[in-house]
């Protein structure tokens, strides 16, 4: 870092919550953007969460992070997003036991229109937005729709946690390190309808489909990954926080720094690839090239995968129609 490297403005919403607490210290330490890049943090909360966010800010200060060039805490979205380069939209209500993420559609969807407008009003030209708050795909769609001056490619939603879960479950089943696994894809919605696809996956170059049986794939692997969020809520008593923060770091880190040849999964605006209607925010296999997500083209989709992708995409269409009917889009 040269003395003159300008800090990157990173805004985290819901900064007083569980994910915020797991995320902010990692950003301050350089794990989001690299150990050469200074950051200025803006913590956005609603009034009931402000004290918790202020407490987190005090602890950030006490970390004496060399890369941390300032912390502001606010409940004013316009101030929080003024000049923002990286926006992590975490603030939203989590689901509890027995709920689906789509049960949060109306309550949480209403958060993302005004935040989209505030991003539109003040963000830097290179802004990158990651929506974590659920239902993340449709919330990203809402935010993007309220930011007409910003390319829809700049609004993404997080399925990296699902991707990481799929890689970890495969590695565990096959008794190999996670690093040996390549080519997993999460398709569709960050919900129980998502499709964790191992058709193209390899372990040290060998096709995974040669190593796992179909029963394990359909009865264990796919439901385990798709319902892992509910399992965490059941066992932990509240929704995933540290693993979600870690996945958010992975998503932004790869978006900014590039993925190389290996692909990952992210929910980005569809260009119509793989039969996903243009404009929906859906999870795809993606590489980050020159600072932009690119959908990996030309993967063969078999009949089993087609059916699963179509089912998850149908849910995204239904969510889009529901928020449209609520006047949120
Ligand atoms: P939490 O309840 O601990 O924290 C949420 C915080 O958001 C609270 O402090 C609340 O005051 C704040 N908030 C609410 N509305 C706000 C607004 N309009 N502006 C700014 N802040 C606001 O919840 P959490 O565990 O941190 O989870 C946050 C969200 O992330 C939930 O919706 C959860 O379901 C979701 N989540 C998504 C993934 C994913 O993979 N996409 C993973 C885990 C959790
Ligand atoms: C998760 O996948 O852990 C989060 O989306 C939280 C949830 O509600 O499942």
UniProtKB/TrEMBL annotation:
Q: Which CDD domains does the UniProt record give?
A: MDH_chloroplast-like
Domain Lactate/malate dehydrogenase N-terminal: from-to ranges: 9-148
Report the catalytic activity.
(S)-malate + NAD(+) = oxaloacetate + NADH + H(+)
User: Catalytic center at which residues?
Assistant: 190
Tell me the Pfam families matching this sequence.
Ldh_1_C, Ldh_1_N
Which superkingdom? Answer: Bacteria
* MF annotations from Gene Ontology: L-malate dehydrogenase (NAD+) activity
Q: Which residues form the Lactate/malate dehydrogenase C-terminal domain?
A: 159-322
| Residues at which NAD(+) binds | 14-20, 108, 115, 132-134
Query: Any idea which UniProt keywords this protein has?
Result: NAD, Oxidoreductase, Tricarboxylic acid cycle
Q: What is its EC number?
A: 1.1.1.37
InterPro entries, A to Z:
L-lactate/malate_DH, Lactate/malate_DH_C, Lactate/malate_DH_N, Lactate_DH/Glyco_Ohase_4_C, Malate_DH_AS, Malate_DH_type2, NAD(P)-bd_dom_sf
What top-level class of enzyme does the UniProt entry assign?
oxidoreductase
Q: Which positions are annotated as binding substrate?
A: 95, 101, 134, 165
One of the GO BP terms on file: tricarboxylic acid cycle
NCBIfam families per UniProt: MalateDH-SF1, PRK05442.1
Concerning its family, UniProt says:
Belongs to the LDH/MDH superfamily. MDH type 2 family.
What PANTHER family does the entry give? Answer: MALATE DEHYDROGENASE
**What is this protein's function per UniProt?**
Catalyzes the reversible oxidation of malate to oxaloacetate.
Recorded protein name is: Malate dehydrogenase
Specify the taxonomic lineage. Answer: Bacteria, Bacillati, Actinomycetota, Actinomycetes, Micrococcales
Gene encoding this chain? mdh
């Amino acid at each position: 870092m040269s003395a003159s490297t300008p800090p990157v403005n990173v805004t985290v919403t819901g900064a007083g919550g569980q994910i915020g607490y797991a995320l902010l210290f990692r950003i301050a330490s350089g794990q989001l953007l690299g150990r050469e890049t200074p950051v200025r943090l803006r913590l956005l909360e609603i009034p009931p969460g402000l004290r918790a966010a202020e407490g987190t800010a005090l602890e950030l200060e006490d970390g004496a992070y060399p890369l941390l060039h300032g912390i502001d805490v606010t409940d004013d979205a316009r101030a929080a997003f003024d000049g923002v380069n990286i926006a992590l939209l975490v603030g939203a209500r989590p689901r509890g036991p027995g709920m689906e993420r789509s049960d949060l559609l109306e309550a949480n969807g209403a958060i993302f229109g005004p935040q989209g407008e505030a991003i539109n009003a003040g963000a830097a030209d290179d802004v990158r937005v990651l929506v974590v708050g659920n239902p993340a795909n449709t919330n990203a769609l809402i935010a993007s729709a309220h930011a007409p001056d910003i390319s829809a490619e700049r609004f993404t939603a997080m399925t990296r946690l699902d991707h990481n879960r799929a890689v970890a479950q495969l590695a565990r089943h096959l008794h190999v390190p996670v690093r040996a696994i390549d080519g997993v894809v999460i398709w569709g919605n960050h919900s129980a309808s998502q499709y964790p696809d191992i058709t193209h996956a390899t372990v040290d170059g060998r096709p995974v489909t040669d190593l796992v049986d179909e029963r394990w794939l359909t009865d264990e692997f796919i439901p385990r990954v798709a319902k892992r969020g509910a399992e965490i809520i059941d066992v932990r008593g509240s929704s995933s926080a540290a693993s979600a923060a870690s996945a958010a770091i992975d998503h932004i880190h790869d978006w900014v720094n590039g993925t190389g040849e290996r692909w990952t999964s992210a929910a980005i605006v569809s260009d119509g690839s793989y039969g996903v209607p243009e404009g929906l925010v859906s999870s795809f296999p993606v590489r980050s090239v020159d600072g932009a997500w690119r959908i990996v083209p030309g993967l063969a989709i078999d009949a089993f995968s087609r059916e699963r992708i179509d089912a998850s995409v149908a849910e995204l269409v239904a969510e889009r129609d529901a928020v449209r009917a609520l006047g949120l889009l």
